[in-house]
Amino acid sequence: MKKTRGLVTLLFALFPAISLAKNVTPDEFWQIEKAQQPLIIDVRTPEEFSEGHLTNAINIPFDQIAKIENYLTDKSKPILLYCRSGRRAELAENTLYTLGYKETFNGMSYQLLLKAKPQS
User: Fold this and answer.
1) What 8-state DSSP symbol labels residue 44?
2) What average pLDDT does this structure show over 14-21?
Protein backbone atom coordinates (compact mmCIF):
# COMPACT_ATOMS: atom_id res chain seq x y z
CA MET A 1 0.00 0.00 0.00
CA LYS A 2 2.78 2.39 0.88
CA LYS A 3 4.54 1.70 -2.45
CA THR A 4 1.33 2.38 -4.39
CA ARG A 5 0.80 5.68 -2.60
CA GLY A 6 4.39 6.65 -3.34
CA LEU A 7 3.94 5.79 -7.01
CA VAL A 8 0.78 7.87 -7.26
CA THR A 9 2.52 10.81 -5.59
CA LEU A 10 5.45 10.46 -7.99
CA LEU A 11 3.12 10.40 -11.02
CA PHE A 12 1.35 13.58 -9.89
CA ALA A 13 4.71 15.25 -9.32
CA LEU A 14 5.92 14.27 -12.79
CA PHE A 15 2.67 15.08 -14.60
CA PRO A 16 1.04 17.98 -12.74
CA ALA A 17 -0.86 19.39 -15.73
CA ILE A 18 -3.44 16.74 -16.44
CA SER A 19 -5.33 17.88 -19.48
CA LEU A 20 -9.01 18.64 -19.07
CA ALA A 21 -9.33 19.63 -22.71
CA LYS A 22 -12.34 18.59 -24.76
CA ASN A 23 -10.88 18.42 -28.25
CA VAL A 24 -13.37 18.56 -31.09
CA THR A 25 -12.97 17.95 -34.80
CA PRO A 26 -13.36 20.87 -37.19
CA ASP A 27 -16.82 19.57 -38.16
CA GLU A 28 -17.87 19.34 -34.50
CA PHE A 29 -16.50 22.87 -33.92
CA TRP A 30 -18.75 24.27 -36.66
CA GLN A 31 -21.76 22.27 -35.43
CA ILE A 32 -21.33 23.75 -31.94
CA GLU A 33 -20.85 27.21 -33.44
CA LYS A 34 -24.09 26.93 -35.40
CA ALA A 35 -26.24 25.32 -32.72
CA GLN A 36 -25.12 27.01 -29.52
CA GLN A 37 -23.95 30.55 -30.37
CA PRO A 38 -20.74 30.19 -28.33
CA LEU A 39 -18.02 32.71 -27.65
CA ILE A 40 -15.15 32.01 -30.06
CA ILE A 41 -11.68 32.80 -28.75
CA ASP A 42 -8.47 32.84 -30.76
CA VAL A 43 -5.72 32.31 -28.19
CA ARG A 44 -2.83 33.11 -30.53
CA THR A 45 -0.75 36.27 -30.28
CA PRO A 46 -2.20 39.59 -31.44
CA GLU A 47 0.22 39.46 -34.39
CA GLU A 48 -1.07 36.05 -35.47
CA PHE A 49 -4.66 37.21 -34.99
CA SER A 50 -4.09 40.28 -37.17
CA GLU A 51 -2.83 38.04 -39.99
CA GLY A 52 -6.18 36.25 -40.08
CA HIS A 53 -8.82 34.85 -37.74
CA LEU A 54 -12.26 33.30 -37.72
CA THR A 55 -15.24 35.61 -38.14
CA ASN A 56 -16.69 36.67 -34.78
CA ALA A 57 -13.59 35.47 -32.88
CA ILE A 58 -12.10 37.63 -30.19
CA ASN A 59 -8.40 37.54 -29.40
CA ILE A 60 -7.30 36.67 -25.89
CA PRO A 61 -3.77 35.21 -25.91
CA PHE A 62 -3.59 31.93 -24.00
CA ASP A 63 -1.40 33.40 -21.27
CA GLN A 64 -3.99 36.15 -20.64
CA ILE A 65 -7.09 33.95 -20.77
CA ALA A 66 -8.14 34.91 -17.24
CA LYS A 67 -9.29 38.21 -18.83
CA ILE A 68 -12.27 36.20 -20.10
CA GLU A 69 -14.23 37.58 -17.19
CA ASN A 70 -14.18 40.98 -18.97
CA TYR A 71 -16.12 39.39 -21.85
CA LEU A 72 -18.16 36.60 -20.34
CA THR A 73 -19.57 36.26 -16.85
CA ASP A 74 -22.00 33.45 -17.71
CA LYS A 75 -19.83 30.43 -16.99
CA SER A 76 -22.36 28.05 -18.56
CA LYS A 77 -22.08 29.60 -22.04
CA PRO A 78 -20.10 27.44 -24.50
CA ILE A 79 -16.64 28.64 -25.48
CA LEU A 80 -14.79 27.53 -28.60
CA LEU A 81 -11.02 27.95 -28.56
CA TYR A 82 -8.40 27.60 -31.26
CA CYS A 83 -4.79 28.45 -32.05
CA ARG A 84 -2.22 27.24 -34.58
CA SER A 85 -1.90 23.62 -33.45
CA GLY A 86 -4.19 23.21 -30.44
CA ARG A 87 -1.60 23.27 -27.67
CA ARG A 88 -2.14 26.88 -26.56
CA ALA A 89 -5.90 26.37 -26.77
CA GLU A 90 -5.51 23.33 -24.50
CA LEU A 91 -3.58 25.38 -21.94
CA ALA A 92 -6.21 28.12 -22.10
CA GLU A 93 -8.99 25.57 -21.76
CA ASN A 94 -7.44 24.11 -18.63
CA THR A 95 -7.20 27.60 -17.11
CA LEU A 96 -10.82 28.33 -18.01
CA TYR A 97 -11.88 25.08 -16.36
CA THR A 98 -10.17 26.10 -13.11
CA LEU A 99 -11.99 29.47 -13.33
CA GLY A 100 -15.32 27.65 -13.49
CA TYR A 101 -15.99 27.65 -17.25
CA LYS A 102 -16.97 24.03 -17.93
CA GLU A 103 -18.40 24.24 -21.48
CA THR A 104 -15.13 24.78 -23.31
CA PHE A 105 -14.05 23.08 -26.52
CA ASN A 106 -10.67 23.03 -28.26
CA GLY A 107 -11.06 23.34 -32.02
CA MET A 108 -7.31 22.98 -32.37
CA SER A 109 -5.97 24.35 -35.67
CA TYR A 110 -7.01 27.65 -37.24
CA GLN A 111 -6.03 26.38 -40.71
CA LEU A 112 -8.06 23.16 -40.39
CA LEU A 113 -11.05 25.11 -39.11
CA LEU A 114 -10.87 27.43 -42.10
CA LYS A 115 -10.80 24.49 -44.51
CA ALA A 116 -13.78 22.83 -42.84
CA LYS A 117 -15.90 25.97 -42.44
CA PRO A 118 -19.32 25.45 -44.01
CA GLN A 119 -20.18 27.75 -46.88
CA SER A 120 -22.94 30.20 -45.97
Assistant:
1) S
2) 49
Q: Residue 32 belongs to a domain with what CATH number?
A: 3.40.250.10
| E runs forming strands in the chain | 39-42, 57-59, 79-83, 104-109
Q: Is residue 63 part of a domain?
A: yes
Number of domains composing the chain: 1
CA-CA distance, 76 to 84, in Å (whole number)?
Answer: 26
Quick one: pLDDT at residue 105?
Answer: 96
Annotated active-site residue in 83, 91, 96, 108:
83
pLDDT bracket for residue 115 (50, 70, 90)? very high
Coil, strand or helix: which one is 14? helix
Whether residue 51 is predicted with pLDDT greater than 60 in this model: the reply is yes
Task: Check if 80 is active-site.
Answer: no
Side by side, the strands of the sheet bearing 104-109 are 57-59, 39-42, 79-83, 104-109
Q: Is residue 4 part of a domain?
A: no
